[in-house]
Amino acid sequence: MAIGAIGVIAGAGQCRDEGGMQTTSSSDASPMFRRRHILPAAIALLGACSTVKPARMVPQDVPIRQTVQIPTRVRLASLEGDKSSSFGIYDDSRFAEALLAALKQSRLFADVSEKDGEIDLTVRVLTQAHDTDLRSMRTTMRLVAAYSFTGRDGTPVWSETYDTSFSSGNLGGAQRHIDSYEGAVRESIASLLMGIAERWPRK
Amino acid sequence: MIDPKRACLPTTKQRMPQLITPIVRLGVFILAMVLAVACGTVPPPTRARIVPLGVGPGSAGILLVVDVCLNYSPLNADDYFVVDNARRGAAAIATEASTFLEHTGAPVRTRLVPFVCGALHDAQNSPKRFAELIDGQVNLKTQPIWLDEEISRDAEYSQALQQVATQVFSTAVASGGAGNALVNREQLASASAIVSRKTGHSGLVYIGVTGNSLSPGKAAVSVGARAIASMALSLAIGPVFRTEGIEVYAVFAPRFPYDVRQMAGGFVDLDAGSVVRTKVVHDVGDPMKSEVLARKEALSLLLVDMAFSRISRISR
Predict the structure, then answer these.
(1) Quick check: B246 and A129 CB within 8 A?
(2) For the complex shown, is ipTM > 0.95?
(3) CA of A58: how far to CAs of A175, A182, A186, in Å?
(4) Contact status of A80 with chain B (Cβ, < 8 Å)
Protein backbone atom coordinates (compact mmCIF):
# COMPACT_ATOMS: atom_id res chain seq x y z
CA MET A 1 0.00 0.00 0.00
CA ALA A 2 2.73 2.41 1.00
CA ILE A 3 4.78 1.50 -2.04
CA GLY A 4 1.75 2.05 -4.23
CA ALA A 5 1.19 5.44 -2.68
CA ILE A 6 4.78 6.41 -3.36
CA GLY A 7 4.32 5.32 -6.95
CA VAL A 8 1.32 7.59 -7.38
CA ILE A 9 2.95 10.51 -5.57
CA ALA A 10 6.01 10.20 -7.77
CA GLY A 11 3.81 10.95 -10.74
CA ALA A 12 5.01 7.90 -12.47
CA GLY A 13 2.17 6.73 -14.63
CA GLN A 14 -0.32 3.95 -14.30
CA CYS A 15 -0.87 0.52 -12.80
CA ARG A 16 -3.71 -1.85 -13.67
CA ASP A 17 -4.74 -4.46 -11.16
CA GLU A 18 -6.66 -7.68 -11.76
CA GLY A 19 -10.04 -6.08 -11.33
CA GLY A 20 -9.29 -3.50 -14.00
CA MET A 21 -8.87 -0.67 -11.48
CA GLN A 22 -6.60 1.95 -12.92
CA THR A 23 -4.79 4.77 -11.22
CA THR A 24 -3.31 7.47 -13.38
CA SER A 25 -1.45 10.60 -12.57
CA SER A 26 0.53 13.07 -14.59
CA SER A 27 3.23 15.53 -13.87
CA ASP A 28 4.09 18.86 -15.42
CA ALA A 29 7.48 18.97 -13.76
CA SER A 30 10.69 19.60 -15.64
CA PRO A 31 12.50 16.84 -17.60
CA MET A 32 15.25 16.82 -14.96
CA PHE A 33 12.64 16.24 -12.24
CA ARG A 34 11.16 13.39 -14.25
CA ARG A 35 14.55 11.75 -14.91
CA ARG A 36 15.45 11.95 -11.23
CA HIS A 37 12.26 10.12 -10.31
CA ILE A 38 12.13 7.47 -13.02
CA LEU A 39 14.00 4.81 -11.04
CA PRO A 40 12.19 5.19 -7.69
CA ALA A 41 8.89 5.42 -9.51
CA ALA A 42 9.64 2.27 -11.49
CA ILE A 43 10.59 0.41 -8.30
CA ALA A 44 7.46 1.70 -6.58
CA LEU A 45 5.30 0.59 -9.46
CA LEU A 46 6.86 -2.86 -9.53
CA GLY A 47 6.08 -3.20 -5.84
CA ALA A 48 2.58 -1.83 -6.21
CA CYS A 49 1.74 -4.22 -9.04
CA SER A 50 3.13 -7.29 -7.23
CA THR A 51 0.38 -9.51 -5.97
CA VAL A 52 -0.45 -13.17 -5.60
CA LYS A 53 -2.02 -14.51 -8.79
CA PRO A 54 -4.30 -17.58 -8.52
CA ALA A 55 -3.48 -18.62 -12.09
CA ARG A 56 0.18 -19.02 -11.14
CA MET A 57 -0.78 -21.33 -8.25
CA VAL A 58 -2.56 -23.84 -10.48
CA PRO A 59 -0.15 -26.73 -11.17
CA GLN A 60 0.20 -27.50 -14.86
CA ASP A 61 2.47 -30.52 -14.91
CA VAL A 62 0.84 -33.01 -12.53
CA PRO A 63 1.32 -36.59 -13.75
CA ILE A 64 -2.17 -37.92 -12.96
CA ARG A 65 -2.52 -41.56 -13.91
CA GLN A 66 -6.20 -41.90 -13.07
CA THR A 67 -8.38 -42.58 -16.11
CA VAL A 68 -11.79 -43.00 -14.45
CA GLN A 69 -13.44 -39.90 -13.03
CA ILE A 70 -14.72 -40.10 -9.44
CA PRO A 71 -18.51 -39.78 -9.85
CA THR A 72 -18.90 -37.31 -6.99
CA ARG A 73 -19.59 -33.59 -6.84
CA VAL A 74 -17.33 -31.73 -4.39
CA ARG A 75 -18.05 -28.47 -2.57
CA LEU A 76 -15.12 -26.41 -1.32
CA ALA A 77 -16.62 -25.69 2.10
CA SER A 78 -13.81 -23.65 3.62
CA LEU A 79 -10.12 -22.80 3.43
CA GLU A 80 -8.65 -21.38 6.59
CA GLY A 81 -5.11 -20.13 6.91
CA ASP A 82 -3.15 -19.56 10.08
CA LYS A 83 -2.90 -15.89 9.20
CA SER A 84 -4.93 -13.85 6.75
CA SER A 85 -2.19 -11.56 5.57
CA SER A 86 1.50 -10.94 5.93
CA PHE A 87 2.83 -8.14 3.74
CA GLY A 88 -0.41 -8.79 1.80
CA ILE A 89 1.07 -12.04 0.54
CA TYR A 90 -0.70 -14.91 2.27
CA ASP A 91 -4.16 -14.88 0.81
CA ASP A 92 -6.65 -17.62 1.60
CA SER A 93 -9.23 -16.47 -0.96
CA ARG A 94 -6.71 -16.67 -3.80
CA PHE A 95 -5.48 -20.04 -2.56
CA ALA A 96 -9.12 -21.22 -2.66
CA GLU A 97 -9.56 -19.78 -6.15
CA ALA A 98 -6.48 -21.65 -7.38
CA LEU A 99 -7.58 -24.87 -5.69
CA LEU A 100 -11.00 -24.74 -7.33
CA ALA A 101 -9.46 -24.07 -10.74
CA ALA A 102 -6.95 -26.90 -10.32
CA LEU A 103 -9.59 -29.44 -9.24
CA LYS A 104 -11.84 -28.46 -12.15
CA GLN A 105 -8.96 -28.62 -14.60
CA SER A 106 -7.90 -32.06 -13.36
CA ARG A 107 -11.38 -33.55 -13.98
CA LEU A 108 -10.78 -35.89 -11.06
CA PHE A 109 -14.34 -35.31 -9.80
CA ALA A 110 -17.64 -35.01 -11.62
CA ASP A 111 -17.89 -31.39 -10.49
CA VAL A 112 -16.24 -28.97 -8.09
CA SER A 113 -17.75 -25.71 -6.86
CA GLU A 114 -18.11 -23.46 -3.86
CA LYS A 115 -21.89 -23.83 -3.77
CA ASP A 116 -23.03 -27.37 -4.22
CA GLY A 117 -21.75 -30.91 -3.83
CA GLU A 118 -22.24 -34.31 -2.26
CA ILE A 119 -19.06 -34.10 -0.21
CA ASP A 120 -17.35 -31.14 1.43
CA LEU A 121 -13.67 -30.27 1.13
CA THR A 122 -12.20 -28.40 4.09
CA VAL A 123 -8.65 -27.06 3.93
CA ARG A 124 -6.67 -25.93 6.95
CA VAL A 125 -3.34 -24.21 6.43
CA LEU A 126 -1.45 -25.33 9.53
CA THR A 127 1.93 -23.73 8.88
CA GLN A 128 3.12 -20.88 6.68
CA ALA A 129 6.73 -19.98 7.30
CA HIS A 130 9.34 -18.28 5.21
CA ASP A 131 13.12 -18.39 5.37
CA THR A 132 15.02 -15.54 3.77
CA ASP A 133 18.72 -16.06 3.23
CA LEU A 134 20.12 -12.59 2.62
CA ARG A 135 23.50 -13.91 1.54
CA SER A 136 22.07 -15.65 -1.51
CA MET A 137 18.98 -13.41 -1.80
CA ARG A 138 16.75 -16.47 -1.61
CA THR A 139 13.39 -16.92 0.06
CA THR A 140 11.91 -20.33 0.83
CA MET A 141 8.26 -20.67 1.76
CA ARG A 142 7.16 -23.72 3.70
CA LEU A 143 3.48 -24.58 3.76
CA VAL A 144 1.68 -27.37 5.61
CA ALA A 145 -1.96 -27.85 4.63
CA ALA A 146 -4.50 -30.48 5.70
CA TYR A 147 -7.20 -31.42 3.17
CA SER A 148 -10.28 -33.22 4.53
CA PHE A 149 -13.19 -34.57 2.50
CA THR A 150 -16.32 -35.29 4.51
CA GLY A 151 -19.89 -36.29 3.73
CA ARG A 152 -22.59 -33.69 4.25
CA ASP A 153 -23.31 -35.35 7.60
CA GLY A 154 -19.68 -34.91 8.65
CA THR A 155 -18.60 -38.50 7.99
CA PRO A 156 -14.88 -38.59 7.10
CA VAL A 157 -14.32 -39.73 3.51
CA TRP A 158 -10.64 -39.07 2.88
CA SER A 159 -7.96 -36.75 4.24
CA GLU A 160 -4.28 -36.06 3.76
CA THR A 161 -1.77 -33.46 4.93
CA TYR A 162 1.09 -32.16 2.80
CA ASP A 163 4.29 -30.32 3.68
CA THR A 164 5.60 -28.42 0.66
CA SER A 165 8.24 -25.80 0.03
CA PHE A 166 9.32 -23.54 -2.81
CA SER A 167 12.33 -21.25 -3.12
CA SER A 168 12.70 -18.10 -5.16
CA GLY A 169 15.85 -16.18 -6.00
CA ASN A 170 14.10 -13.15 -7.47
CA LEU A 171 16.04 -9.96 -6.75
CA GLY A 172 12.93 -8.04 -5.72
CA GLY A 173 12.09 -8.74 -2.08
CA ALA A 174 8.30 -8.55 -2.41
CA GLN A 175 8.29 -10.55 -5.64
CA ARG A 176 10.57 -13.17 -4.05
CA HIS A 177 8.03 -13.68 -1.27
CA ILE A 178 5.15 -13.85 -3.74
CA ASP A 179 6.98 -16.33 -6.00
CA SER A 180 7.83 -18.59 -3.07
CA TYR A 181 4.29 -18.45 -1.65
CA GLU A 182 2.73 -19.18 -5.03
CA GLY A 183 5.16 -22.02 -5.57
CA ALA A 184 4.52 -23.63 -2.19
CA VAL A 185 0.75 -23.45 -2.75
CA ARG A 186 1.20 -24.87 -6.26
CA GLU A 187 3.21 -27.79 -4.87
CA SER A 188 0.58 -28.40 -2.19
CA ILE A 189 -2.26 -28.47 -4.73
CA ALA A 190 -0.21 -30.76 -7.00
CA SER A 191 0.35 -33.11 -4.05
CA LEU A 192 -3.39 -33.17 -3.40
CA LEU A 193 -4.23 -33.97 -7.02
CA MET A 194 -1.70 -36.82 -7.07
CA GLY A 195 -2.95 -38.06 -3.71
CA ILE A 196 -6.56 -38.16 -4.90
CA ALA A 197 -5.57 -39.91 -8.14
CA GLU A 198 -3.50 -42.54 -6.34
CA ARG A 199 -5.16 -43.08 -2.98
CA TRP A 200 -8.82 -42.08 -3.17
CA PRO A 201 -10.84 -44.98 -1.67
CA ARG A 202 -12.28 -47.21 -4.40
CA LYS A 203 -15.65 -48.84 -3.86
CA MET B 1 36.59 34.28 -8.19
CA ILE B 2 39.47 32.03 -7.14
CA ASP B 3 41.63 30.56 -9.87
CA PRO B 4 42.02 26.83 -9.12
CA LYS B 5 45.63 26.82 -10.39
CA ARG B 6 46.60 29.67 -8.10
CA ALA B 7 44.79 28.25 -5.14
CA CYS B 8 46.49 24.86 -5.71
CA LEU B 9 43.05 23.21 -5.93
CA PRO B 10 42.67 20.31 -8.38
CA THR B 11 40.86 21.20 -11.57
CA THR B 12 37.89 19.19 -12.77
CA LYS B 13 40.19 17.44 -15.23
CA GLN B 14 42.62 16.56 -12.44
CA ARG B 15 39.83 15.30 -10.21
CA MET B 16 38.39 12.90 -12.80
CA PRO B 17 40.64 9.90 -11.94
CA GLN B 18 39.86 10.38 -8.25
CA LEU B 19 36.15 10.37 -9.00
CA ILE B 20 36.26 7.47 -11.45
CA THR B 21 38.10 5.05 -9.16
CA PRO B 22 35.38 4.79 -6.48
CA ILE B 23 32.66 4.65 -9.14
CA VAL B 24 34.45 1.79 -10.89
CA ARG B 25 34.94 0.02 -7.57
CA LEU B 26 31.27 0.39 -6.75
CA GLY B 27 30.33 -0.88 -10.21
CA VAL B 28 32.57 -3.93 -9.84
CA PHE B 29 31.12 -4.61 -6.40
CA ILE B 30 27.52 -4.37 -7.66
CA LEU B 31 28.38 -6.58 -10.66
CA ALA B 32 29.97 -9.15 -8.34
CA MET B 33 26.91 -9.11 -6.10
CA VAL B 34 24.54 -9.56 -9.05
CA LEU B 35 26.67 -12.40 -10.44
CA ALA B 36 26.85 -14.05 -7.03
CA VAL B 37 23.08 -13.91 -6.69
CA ALA B 38 22.50 -15.02 -10.26
CA CYS B 39 24.87 -17.96 -9.84
CA GLY B 40 23.48 -18.95 -6.44
CA THR B 41 21.60 -22.21 -6.46
CA VAL B 42 17.93 -22.18 -5.62
CA PRO B 43 16.82 -25.40 -3.91
CA PRO B 44 14.27 -27.46 -5.83
CA PRO B 45 10.64 -27.52 -4.68
CA THR B 46 9.74 -30.24 -2.20
CA ARG B 47 6.54 -32.19 -1.58
CA ALA B 48 5.85 -34.66 1.19
CA ARG B 49 2.74 -36.30 2.52
CA ILE B 50 2.91 -36.25 6.29
CA VAL B 51 1.18 -38.67 8.62
CA PRO B 52 0.91 -38.22 12.39
CA LEU B 53 3.06 -40.58 14.42
CA GLY B 54 1.17 -42.93 16.68
CA VAL B 55 -1.56 -43.66 14.15
CA GLY B 56 -2.19 -47.24 13.11
CA PRO B 57 -4.28 -50.34 13.68
CA GLY B 58 -2.55 -51.16 16.98
CA SER B 59 -2.36 -47.57 18.20
CA ALA B 60 -3.77 -46.80 21.63
CA GLY B 61 -3.80 -43.04 21.16
CA ILE B 62 -1.49 -40.22 22.08
CA LEU B 63 -0.76 -38.71 25.47
CA LEU B 64 0.17 -35.01 25.25
CA VAL B 65 2.43 -33.78 28.06
CA VAL B 66 3.27 -30.09 28.45
CA ASP B 67 6.02 -29.00 30.82
CA VAL B 68 6.78 -25.28 31.18
CA CYS B 69 9.60 -23.70 33.19
CA LEU B 70 9.77 -19.90 33.32
CA ASN B 71 12.63 -17.97 34.80
CA TYR B 72 11.97 -14.41 35.98
CA SER B 73 14.83 -12.01 36.16
CA PRO B 74 14.04 -8.92 38.26
CA LEU B 75 16.26 -5.82 38.29
CA ASN B 76 17.85 -6.02 41.73
CA ALA B 77 17.54 -9.60 42.92
CA ASP B 78 18.46 -13.12 41.88
CA ASP B 79 16.44 -14.94 39.26
CA TYR B 80 13.65 -17.32 40.25
CA PHE B 81 11.11 -19.59 38.57
CA VAL B 82 7.42 -18.64 38.57
CA VAL B 83 4.79 -21.35 39.04
CA ASP B 84 1.49 -19.63 38.25
CA ASN B 85 2.42 -18.22 34.83
CA ALA B 86 4.00 -21.53 33.86
CA ARG B 87 0.85 -23.48 34.72
CA ARG B 88 -1.44 -21.11 32.83
CA GLY B 89 0.90 -21.05 29.84
CA ALA B 90 1.15 -24.83 29.79
CA ALA B 91 -2.64 -25.16 29.75
CA ALA B 92 -2.82 -22.74 26.80
CA ILE B 93 -0.15 -24.69 24.93
CA ALA B 94 -1.97 -27.98 25.56
CA THR B 95 -5.18 -26.57 24.07
CA GLU B 96 -3.47 -25.13 21.00
CA ALA B 97 -1.33 -28.23 20.38
CA SER B 98 -4.35 -30.56 20.71
CA THR B 99 -6.26 -28.52 18.14
CA PHE B 100 -3.34 -28.65 15.72
CA LEU B 101 -2.85 -32.39 16.13
CA GLU B 102 -6.56 -33.16 15.82
CA HIS B 103 -6.75 -31.24 12.52
CA THR B 104 -4.21 -33.66 11.10
CA GLY B 105 -5.93 -36.77 12.40
CA ALA B 106 -3.59 -37.43 15.32
CA PRO B 107 -5.54 -39.28 18.03
CA VAL B 108 -4.80 -37.17 21.13
CA ARG B 109 -6.71 -38.98 23.89
CA THR B 110 -5.28 -37.31 26.99
CA ARG B 111 -3.49 -34.04 27.66
CA LEU B 112 -1.57 -33.44 30.85
CA VAL B 113 0.16 -30.60 32.62
CA PRO B 114 1.65 -32.84 35.30
CA PHE B 115 4.31 -30.47 36.65
CA VAL B 116 6.20 -27.21 36.35
CA CYS B 117 9.92 -27.50 35.56
CA GLY B 118 9.64 -31.28 35.30
CA ALA B 119 12.59 -31.90 32.98
CA LEU B 120 15.75 -31.70 35.07
CA HIS B 121 18.20 -28.90 34.35
CA ASP B 122 21.06 -30.66 36.11
CA ALA B 123 21.75 -34.30 36.96
CA GLN B 124 22.06 -33.49 40.68
CA ASN B 125 18.65 -31.78 40.73
CA SER B 126 19.96 -29.01 42.93
CA PRO B 127 17.34 -26.85 44.70
CA LYS B 128 15.96 -24.02 42.56
CA ARG B 129 14.62 -20.62 43.64
CA PHE B 130 10.92 -20.29 42.87
CA ALA B 131 7.84 -18.22 43.68
CA GLU B 132 4.14 -18.86 43.11
CA LEU B 133 3.72 -15.43 41.50
CA ILE B 134 5.96 -12.69 40.11
CA ASP B 135 7.21 -10.62 43.07
CA GLY B 136 5.93 -13.34 45.42
CA GLN B 137 7.89 -14.94 48.22
CA VAL B 138 10.90 -16.85 46.93
CA ASN B 139 11.62 -20.34 48.30
CA LEU B 140 13.92 -23.24 47.43
CA LYS B 141 12.79 -26.57 46.02
CA THR B 142 14.12 -29.37 43.85
CA GLN B 143 12.45 -30.05 40.51
CA PRO B 144 9.60 -30.28 39.79
CA ILE B 145 8.79 -27.05 41.54
CA TRP B 146 5.06 -27.84 41.25
CA LEU B 147 3.38 -31.23 40.86
CA ASP B 148 -0.26 -31.89 40.02
CA GLU B 149 -2.05 -33.09 43.17
CA GLU B 150 -3.70 -36.12 41.58
CA ILE B 151 -0.50 -37.26 39.87
CA SER B 152 1.50 -36.73 43.07
CA ARG B 153 -0.57 -39.49 44.73
CA ASP B 154 1.12 -42.05 42.46
CA ALA B 155 4.85 -41.66 43.09
CA GLU B 156 5.87 -44.27 40.51
CA TYR B 157 3.79 -42.58 37.78
CA SER B 158 4.93 -39.03 38.58
CA GLN B 159 8.59 -40.10 38.68
CA ALA B 160 8.21 -41.94 35.36
CA LEU B 161 6.64 -38.87 33.74
CA GLN B 162 9.47 -36.70 35.01
CA GLN B 163 12.09 -39.13 33.71
CA VAL B 164 10.42 -39.20 30.27
CA ALA B 165 10.33 -35.39 30.29
CA THR B 166 14.02 -35.16 31.21
CA GLN B 167 15.02 -37.72 28.58
CA VAL B 168 13.03 -36.16 25.74
CA PHE B 169 14.12 -32.64 26.62
CA SER B 170 17.78 -33.68 26.86
CA THR B 171 17.60 -35.67 23.63
CA ALA B 172 16.01 -32.74 21.78
CA VAL B 173 18.55 -30.24 23.05
CA ALA B 174 21.43 -32.67 22.48
CA SER B 175 20.33 -33.19 18.87
CA GLY B 176 20.94 -29.49 18.39
CA GLY B 177 24.47 -29.87 19.70
CA ALA B 178 23.87 -28.28 23.09
CA GLY B 179 24.95 -31.18 25.30
CA ASN B 180 23.72 -34.65 26.16
CA ALA B 181 24.69 -35.15 29.81
CA LEU B 182 21.22 -36.27 30.91
CA VAL B 183 20.37 -38.66 28.06
CA ASN B 184 19.92 -42.20 29.38
CA ARG B 185 18.19 -44.71 27.11
CA GLU B 186 17.67 -47.38 29.77
CA GLN B 187 15.97 -44.90 32.06
CA LEU B 188 13.72 -43.77 29.22
CA ALA B 189 12.72 -47.35 28.35
CA SER B 190 11.73 -48.24 31.89
CA ALA B 191 9.89 -44.93 32.46
CA SER B 192 8.03 -45.35 29.13
CA ALA B 193 6.84 -48.80 30.17
CA ILE B 194 5.41 -47.40 33.40
CA VAL B 195 3.64 -44.49 31.62
CA SER B 196 2.25 -46.90 29.01
CA ARG B 197 0.95 -49.24 31.71
CA LYS B 198 -0.58 -46.44 33.77
CA THR B 199 -2.26 -44.57 30.90
CA GLY B 200 -2.89 -47.24 28.27
CA HIS B 201 -1.42 -45.00 25.55
CA SER B 202 1.11 -46.07 22.95
CA GLY B 203 2.54 -42.69 21.99
CA LEU B 204 3.54 -39.57 23.91
CA VAL B 205 4.01 -36.06 22.54
CA TYR B 206 6.16 -34.03 24.92
CA ILE B 207 6.43 -30.24 24.72
CA GLY B 208 8.98 -28.76 27.10
CA VAL B 209 9.37 -24.99 27.33
CA THR B 210 12.15 -23.12 29.06
CA GLY B 211 11.58 -19.40 29.06
CA ASN B 212 13.41 -16.33 30.25
CA SER B 213 11.49 -13.20 31.20
CA LEU B 214 13.13 -9.92 32.16
CA SER B 215 11.61 -7.27 34.36
CA PRO B 216 10.49 -4.19 32.37
CA GLY B 217 13.62 -2.31 33.45
CA LYS B 218 15.96 -5.01 32.29
CA ALA B 219 14.01 -5.51 29.09
CA ALA B 220 14.43 -1.83 28.24
CA VAL B 221 18.19 -1.93 28.58
CA SER B 222 18.52 -5.22 26.73
CA VAL B 223 17.26 -4.10 23.32
CA GLY B 224 20.79 -3.82 21.98
CA ALA B 225 21.83 -7.11 23.52
CA ARG B 226 18.86 -8.83 21.95
CA ALA B 227 19.64 -7.50 18.49
CA ILE B 228 23.28 -8.52 18.74
CA ALA B 229 22.46 -11.97 20.11
CA SER B 230 19.86 -12.60 17.39
CA MET B 231 22.27 -11.54 14.69
CA ALA B 232 25.08 -13.67 16.08
CA LEU B 233 22.86 -16.74 16.32
CA SER B 234 21.48 -16.29 12.82
CA LEU B 235 24.95 -15.89 11.36
CA ALA B 236 26.30 -18.86 13.29
CA ILE B 237 23.51 -21.21 12.41
CA GLY B 238 22.66 -20.00 8.94
CA PRO B 239 19.27 -19.87 7.27
CA VAL B 240 16.40 -20.53 9.61
CA PHE B 241 12.67 -20.63 9.08
CA ARG B 242 10.85 -17.61 10.34
CA THR B 243 7.18 -17.05 10.75
CA GLU B 244 6.18 -13.83 12.43
CA GLY B 245 9.56 -13.61 14.15
CA ILE B 246 10.04 -17.26 15.04
CA GLU B 247 13.46 -18.68 14.45
CA VAL B 248 14.04 -22.39 14.45
CA TYR B 249 17.34 -23.61 15.75
CA ALA B 250 18.60 -25.53 18.70
CA VAL B 251 20.15 -23.64 21.54
CA PHE B 252 19.67 -23.79 25.29
CA ALA B 253 17.74 -20.66 26.21
CA PRO B 254 17.67 -19.84 29.93
CA ARG B 255 19.52 -16.75 31.12
CA PHE B 256 19.56 -15.07 27.74
CA PRO B 257 19.72 -11.29 28.09
CA TYR B 258 16.24 -10.83 26.64
CA ASP B 259 12.70 -12.26 26.72
CA VAL B 260 12.96 -15.59 24.97
CA ARG B 261 11.78 -19.14 25.11
CA GLN B 262 12.95 -22.48 23.81
CA MET B 263 10.42 -25.17 22.98
CA ALA B 264 11.94 -28.64 22.89
CA GLY B 265 9.56 -31.36 21.81
CA GLY B 266 9.67 -35.03 21.05
CA PHE B 267 7.54 -38.01 20.15
CA VAL B 268 8.05 -41.08 22.34
CA ASP B 269 7.00 -44.55 21.24
CA LEU B 270 5.91 -45.80 24.66
CA ASP B 271 5.77 -49.43 23.49
CA ALA B 272 9.35 -49.34 22.19
CA GLY B 273 10.57 -47.02 24.95
CA SER B 274 12.40 -44.74 22.56
CA VAL B 275 12.36 -41.17 21.30
CA VAL B 276 11.31 -41.31 17.67
CA ARG B 277 11.76 -37.66 16.71
CA THR B 278 12.71 -34.37 18.36
CA LYS B 279 12.67 -30.72 17.44
CA VAL B 280 13.67 -27.44 19.05
CA VAL B 281 12.02 -24.10 18.26
CA HIS B 282 13.21 -20.80 19.61
CA ASP B 283 11.01 -17.71 19.82
CA VAL B 284 11.12 -14.27 21.37
CA GLY B 285 8.46 -12.46 23.40
CA ASP B 286 7.64 -12.41 27.11
CA PRO B 287 6.91 -16.04 28.02
CA MET B 288 5.07 -14.99 31.18
CA LYS B 289 2.13 -14.18 28.89
CA SER B 290 0.03 -17.23 27.98
CA GLU B 291 -0.84 -15.83 24.58
CA VAL B 292 2.87 -15.54 23.74
CA LEU B 293 3.63 -19.06 24.98
CA ALA B 294 0.79 -20.60 22.97
CA ARG B 295 1.40 -18.75 19.70
CA LYS B 296 0.35 -21.25 17.11
CA GLU B 297 2.98 -20.18 14.59
CA ALA B 298 5.72 -21.41 16.94
CA LEU B 299 3.82 -24.51 18.03
CA SER B 300 2.98 -25.56 14.48
CA LEU B 301 6.64 -25.37 13.46
CA LEU B 302 7.56 -27.49 16.47
CA LEU B 303 4.83 -30.08 16.00
CA VAL B 304 5.06 -30.52 12.27
CA ASP B 305 8.67 -31.66 12.46
CA MET B 306 8.43 -33.84 15.56
CA ALA B 307 4.99 -35.49 15.57
CA PHE B 308 4.75 -36.61 11.95
CA SER B 309 6.42 -39.04 9.62
CA ARG B 310 7.09 -38.11 6.03
CA ILE B 311 5.86 -40.35 3.28
CA SER B 312 6.61 -40.17 -0.43
CA ARG B 313 8.95 -37.25 -0.13
CA ILE B 314 9.41 -35.84 -3.61
CA SER B 315 12.15 -33.41 -4.47
CA ARG B 316 11.98 -32.24 -8.06
Answers:
(1) yes
(2) no
(3) 18, 9, 6
(4) no
